[in-house]
Structure to design on (474 residues):
DNA sequence: CAGTGGTCTAGACCACGGT
DNA sequence: CCGTGGTCTAGACCACTGG
C-alpha cells in the first residue's frame, strides 16, 4: 500500500523507480538481494505491473539491478554505472569554453591506403583514401591537431567538400550517418611536428583520442585527435 | 495490419524501431525532418500507439531523434550517439587480458586533507582522510599505479579494511554506494616515482584517469590512476 | 512444468507548448 | 485552444529459464 507522496514525490514510474533506488542505496535491499516480483511491487505501490516494469527496466539499463526471467530481479553486487561520452564537434567544444573558434586546413591529399591503415580499418591495401590534416584553435591558442583518413568509397562526396571552410569533423558528422564507432584514448609524446602545431615542447605528454567509424560493415574514417598540452577530457556519471 | 512475420522478421517495438532507424539512415527521413505522429505510425505498422511510443522513445534516448510535445518527432541534425564507459575493477581488466593479477600496497596513512584536495572534493581543510598508494600488475608487468584519498567521515569502515589483500578500488566498489562520479582523462609526464613503479623512462607520456565520487552531497573519494606506458583505453559506441 | 519478466493492446487522461 | 507526446491501466499472451 503505502500512499505515495502526493505532489513532489508524485506517483508514476518515476516514483517507483526512485523509491526502489532509495531502498537499494539504503541497503534495505542489499547487493545480491532479490527484489519482490513485479506483481508484488505493483500491489504495494498500487499501480499497474507495466508501471513497475518500466521502473525496473530503467534501473536495469542504469546497471543498478539485473533481471532474469523466472529467477527475478536482483541488486547488482557491483553498481555498474556508466559514463557517457558524446561525439562532439570541436567547434562546439571550443565555443563552450567561451573562446573564439578558428580552423586551419594544413594538408589534403588523395592516396592509397597504406598497410597499417588498411589493417586498422579492414580495407584492401591501396584503397583510395583522403588524408587530411588540420588544426583547431581556441582564441588563437592551439586546441587540437586533427589527422584523418576517409574511405572515399564510403563517402564519395568528401572529395568535393570545401574542407578549407568547414572541418572534416563537422562535415562528416553532418553528412554521413554511421552505425558503429570505436574510440580509444592514450598519451603520446610530442614529435617535432606536433610540438610545432600545438606549442608544446618536443617529448612532452599529449592526450590523444582516436576514433574509427563504420557504416554497416563499411569502414568510413579513422581520426586521430591530439590535444594541446594540459588538456583534460572530463565527463560525469 | 501487416501480416506478422513469425520469428526472425518479428513484429513489435523492435521492428518499428529498426524500420524507423533504417528510414533515417537511408535519408527517407533526412536530418531535420519531422516524422509522422505516433498515431500515424501506429496505423502504418498496425500496432498500438504505445508500441510506437517505446520505439521512438528509445531512438530518442539513443540521440537519433528529438521529441517535443505538439511539434512532434524530428530527426536530429547531428546524430549524437554516446559511448559508455563502465567503472571497472582493475583486477577484472587485467584478468580480461588473460594475465595474472597481482596487487601491492605501497603506503597507507591517515592525515588531514591538504588544501588542494579539500578544494577538489569540497571538504573542510584538515578533514581526516586516508591516503593510499598501490600498484596493480599484469603478469608481473606494471599495469597501473593508483593513488587514492578517501574521506574517512563518509566511509569510516575503510580504516579497518585489510587493504594489503584487497585493493581499495575493489573494496570501495563492493562496499560503498555512490550517486555521482566525475571522471577526467589526461596525459602526464612520468616523474621519477611513476617512472620507477611503472617501468617507464622519466618524462615519458603516461595515460591518467582521475575520478571523484560522491554519495549524495558528501564527497567519498578521489582516485588518480596512472597506467603503464603504451596503455590505451578503448570503448565502442 | 511453472514462475517471472517481456511485450502488446485498446483506451484513457494528462502536460506541455505552438498557434 | 488543441494537437502531440507522456504516461497509466487492466488484462492478455509469450519467452525464457530454473527446478
Amino acid at each position: 500500500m503505502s500512499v505515495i507522496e502526493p505532489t513532489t514525490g508524485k506517483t508514476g514510474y518515476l516514483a517507483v523507480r526512485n523509491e526502489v533506488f532509495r531502498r537499494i542505496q539504503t541497503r534495505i535491499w542489499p547487493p545480491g538481494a532479490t527484489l519482490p516480483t513485479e506483481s508484488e511491487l505493483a500491489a504495494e505501490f498500487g499501480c499497474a505491473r507495466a508501471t513497475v516494469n518500466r521502473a525496473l527496466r530503467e534501473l536495469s539499463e542504469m546497471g543498478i539491478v539485473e533481471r532474469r526471467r523466472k529467477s527475478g530481479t536482483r541488486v547488482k553486487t557491483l553498481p555498474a554505472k556508466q559514463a557517457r561520452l558524446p561525439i562532439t564537434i570541436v567547434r562546439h567544444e571550443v565555443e563552450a569554453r567561451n573562446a573564439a573558434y578558428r580552423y586551419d586546413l594544413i594538408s589534403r591529399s588523395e592516396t592509397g591506403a597504406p598497410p597499417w591503415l588498411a589493417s586498422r580499418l579492414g580495407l584492401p591495401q591501396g584503397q583510395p583514401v583522403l588524408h587530411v590534416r588540420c588544426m583547431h584553435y581556441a582564441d588563437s591558442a592551439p586546441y587540437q591537431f586533427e589527422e584523418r583518413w576517409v574511405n572515399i568509397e564510403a563517402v564519395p562526396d568528401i572529395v568535393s567538400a570545401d574542407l578549407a571552410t568547414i572541418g572534416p569533423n563537422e562535415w562528416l558528422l553532418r553528412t554521413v550517418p554511421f552505425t558503429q564507432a570505436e574510440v580509444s584514448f592514450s598519451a603520446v609524446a610530442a614529435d617535432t611536428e606536433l610540438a610545432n602545431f600545438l606549442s608544446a615542447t618536443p617529448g612532452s605528454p599529449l592526450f590523444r583520442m582516436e576514433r574509427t567509424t563504420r557504416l554497416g560493415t563499411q569502414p568510413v574514417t579513422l581520426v586521430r585527435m591530439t590535444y594541446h598540452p594540459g588538456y583534460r577530457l572530463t565527463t560525469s556519471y
Observations:
- Residues 159 and 197 of chain A are 25 Å apart (CA to CA).
- The mean pLDDT of chain A is 88.
- Residues 13-25 of chain A form the longest helix (13 residues).
- Residues 37-39, 49-50, 53, 56-57, 67-73 of chain A lie near DNA strand C (CB under 10 Å from a C1').
